[in-house]
Design a protein that fits this description.
72% of the residues lie in helices and 1% in strands. A two-stranded antiparallel ribbon has the order 1-2. The chain contains 21 helices and two strands. It is globular.
């Protein structure tokens, strides 16, 4: 009996001990879980506060910067404004450098309006004049002649263009103290060539040969050599290159804590400078390079851990790319909306009815285009695609372009394998179609202005080259990158 009682006591003690261990274990797990959740929430809150702070700082910089350049007197600007107005008025509103090539068409209309707004800035009312963005229009003349008349005769402004920031005036107005418009075009050409050369050199040093090939092909097929000779075209290309360089630096130094702020800033600065041209380039190019560079940053512990770590990285890449795209979009849209709010405050009236009318027109209005919706959408796509080289050369160009595309598909089909990383492959595919989604969404604008909006497809070309790399195609030169070594 004594032995039986002893065993029962032992058993009960064991059960009690196990219960206590389980309780302690569960408490520890819950504590760890709560800590992890709290850390995640704290990180998210810090990220939001940082981005909100950056948003406020940039909006203040945009506003005060424009007000600052508005204080420059007209008399000091007059000599170079007169030269610039004379130069623009001596040519057509939409000249083609090579007759019959839409890709060579320049938009002097937009440049004349920009200079017209810059001319009308009032040093005595800097905030009102920068928000109102007025310029002079004589309906009997074209915009080039309007600018010449405004400058030579001090014709007063009578039309507003306040739906945009026109942020490039922050650079253009001071430059017009020392350069005419032709001088600014040359300066932009030198800057763009130097920045693109720097980007290519850095990519080559990192043995990222596929991105180099994709970038160069994209620049050729989008006829990028015309870009510096129109102010309207230049800003997104300069920003795209600068943002790509910043992205490479951030990823190379593993600055994960600033990725969100960077892409928010990219979106905001694009909204500030751009005149609705190829705005998506400042998202798509840096994002493609970001995803490609992230692949090189993966360092596997050992073969056993490889699959597990790769799976986690796949999911992280997809989530991060999506988050950064949304952050860019928020920065872009919120910056634009803030401009409308500031303009409403400056004018003391609600300008949203005017803004909403223009937005609906760009999204799908029938102004200047009377087509059924289906034809309108197809036209917006086909007109932009047909501006690419060699398609821009007509029937012969279309045949050559078709042959090149078939060769690309052949190599991908014959020599391609399963994607090395499905998430990365999916991101490349999705980013590559962003320009086409933009053409469809803003089909009125894309249809009418295809001769410059088509350049957003530079990202599509780079994306297609990166897709080929992800499917296992290899270039016949160069050292393997770390990413290839990890395979």
């Amino acid at each position: 009996m004594a032995v039986g009682k002893k065993n029962v006591t032992k058993s009960n003690n064991k059960k009690t001990s196990n219960k206590a261990i389980n309780k302690t274990s569960n408490k520890a797990i819950n504590k760890t879980s709560n800590k992890a959740i709290n850390n995640t929430l704290n990180k998210a809150l810090i990220e939001v506060l940082k981005e909100a702070g950056l948003f406020i700082i940039l909006i203040m910089f945009f506003t005060l910067g424009l007000c600052g350049v508005a204080k420059i007197s007209r008399d000091s600007l007059r000599p170079n404004f007169e030269k610039s107005a004379e130069f623009l008025n001596s040519g057509n509103v939409y000249p083609q450098i090579f007759e019959g090539l839409e890709s060579s068409r320049l938009d002097r209309y937009a440049d004349s309006i920009l200079l017209g707004i810059a001319w009308q800035y009032d040093p005595d009312k800097p905030f009102l004049s920068t928000m109102q963005s007025l310029y002079f229009v004589n309906p009997k003349e074209n915009v080039n002649a309007n600018l010449a008349e405004a400058v030579s005769k001090d014709a007063p402004a009578n039309v507003n263009y306040y739906r945009y920031w026109h942020g490039s005036i922050l650079i253009v107005r001071p430059l017009l103290l020392i350069l005419s418009l032709k001088g600014i075009y040359i300066l932009n050409c030198i800057l763009l060539v130097l920045l693109l050369a720097l980007l290519i050199v850095i990519l080559v040093k990192k043995h990222m040969y596929f991105p180099v090939v994709g970038l160069i092909l994209g620049l050729i097929l989008t006829s990028a050599w015309y870009v510096p000779f129109c102010l309207e075209y230049t800003w997104t290309f300069l920003l795209m290159t600068i943002f790509s360089l910043i992205t490479i630096w951030a990823v190379s130094h593993k600055k994960e804590n600033i990725y969100g702020c960077l892409f928010l800033g990219f979106g905001m600065i694009t909204s500030f400078f751009d005149f609705l041209t190829t705005e998506t380039l400042t998202l798509t190019l840096p994002l493609l390079l970001f995803v490609r560079l992230e692949a090189d940053n993966v360092e596997f512990i050992n073969a056993y851990e490889r699959h597990k770590q790769q799976k986690a990285m796949d999911k992280k890449s997809l989530v991060t790319a999506f988050r950064l795209s949304i952050t860019w979009l928020i920065g872009y849209a919120a910056s634009w909306a803030t401009k409308w709010l500031l303009t409403s405050i400056a004018l003391g009236k609600n300008i949203l009815p005017y803004i909403s009318g223009n937005i609906s027109n760009r999204l799908g209005g029938e102004e200047w285009v009377d087509l059924p919706l289906g034809q309108f959408l197809i036209g917006a796509l086909s007109r932009n695609i047909s501006c690419l080289l060699p398609l821009d050369f007509g029937k012969v160009g279309i045949i050559i372009g078709f042959v090149i595309f078939i060769i690309y598909l052949y190599f991908v089909y014959v020599y391609g394998k399963k994607p090395g990383n499905r998430s990365r492959f999916l991101i490349y595919c999705l980013v590559s179609i962003i320009p086409f989604l933009r053409f469809l969404l803003l089909h009125n604008h894309s249809y009418l202005h295809c001769f410059f909006t088509f350049r957003a497809q530079l990202a599509t070309i780079l994306g297609l080259v990166l897709i080929a790399e992800e499917l296992g195609l290899r270039l016949p030169w160069g050292k393997e990158s770390r990413r290839e070594g990890n395979k």
